[in-house]
Each structure stands twice: as C-alpha cells, then as structure tokens.
Design brief:
Number of strands: 4
Largest sheet: 4 strands, antiparallel
Number of domains: 1
Structural class: alpha+beta
Oligomer: single chain
Distance between the termini: 23 Å
Number of helices: 7
Helix content: 40-55%
Strand content: 25-35%
C-alpha cells in the first residue's frame, strides 16, 4: 500500500514552481519540461510550500491525481483551465497564503498499479486528515 509518507520518500519533483504573478506562464513551463515529457504512468500531487490546516492536523498537499499519459500530455491541453474563473480563485488564494506550488510525481507500472496507488494515497490522506485534499474535495 502506498502511503503519503512513502510517496514523498520516493517521488521526484518537476522543475519550476507555480507562482501567482506568472501562473499561466509557469504552468506551460513546468509541464513543458523534459521531466514532464518523460513522466508517464504516474501518481502525482500538487504541493504548496506551507501546510494548510485540515480537519485534523495540516498538510501541504492540495491535489492527488493519476495519469497513464505523460504529465505534459495530461496538463498542457488544460493549461488555460487553470486560470479559468473556477480554478484561478482557488490557486491564487493557495499561492498567496501558502506559497508556490510544485508538482511531485511517482512513476509506476500498470494501469491497475496507478489506479490502486491513487486510491491508496487518497485513503491515507483521509485517514491522516479526516478529509480529502482541498482540490480533490471540490471535484467530489
């Protein structure tokens, strides 16, 4: 079972950070990196610098996801949606109050491995904090 702790012990981080004043450009740069082009069959997390209070304790993880595609393929087609009226208020608030965002990822094997790892991470997060990551919770 993959836990939050094990994920962060083993993960890599895409180069660059998502910052408030250059957010749209940062999205394109981060997801255009060679690492994003190579990162396929991964579970990943959007992580801010400071921890955010949760129901129990606090965490810097704001989103947990998975993709069979490369991270570049997964996000470049949605780059403009990050600054949409639905997403921008969330990201701008997080960055303003909790710091820049980085993307951590962990390559895995099969489609089943990726799906199970995402489920494990979300379950472990819920066990630790008694709720899902903030941006996962918005989509439920």
């Amino acid at each position: 079972m993959l836990t939050i702790s094990k994920f962060f012990q083993s993960c890599s981080v895409l180069p660059g950070r998502l910052q408030k004043n250059s957010f749209a450009n940062d999205i394109r740069q981060v997801f255009s990196s060679q690492e994003a082009k190579d990162a396929k069959n991964v579970v990943y997390a959007f992580v801010c610098e400071k921890k955010i209070p949760r129901v129990e304790s606090e965490s810097s993880v704001i989103y947990i996801g998975k993709t069979e595609q490369t991270l570049r393929s997964r996000y470049m087609k949605y780059a403009d949606k990050f600054t949409s009226r639905f997403n921008w208020p969330f990201y701008s608030y997080v960055i303003a109050h909790y710091g820049e965002i980085r993307i951590a990822y962990l390559p895995l094997g099969t489609k089943e491995d990726i799906k199970q790892a995402e489920t494990d991470l979300l379950n472990d997060y819920y066990k630790l904090y008694k709720e899902f990551p903030p941006h996962n919770a918005q989509r439920k």
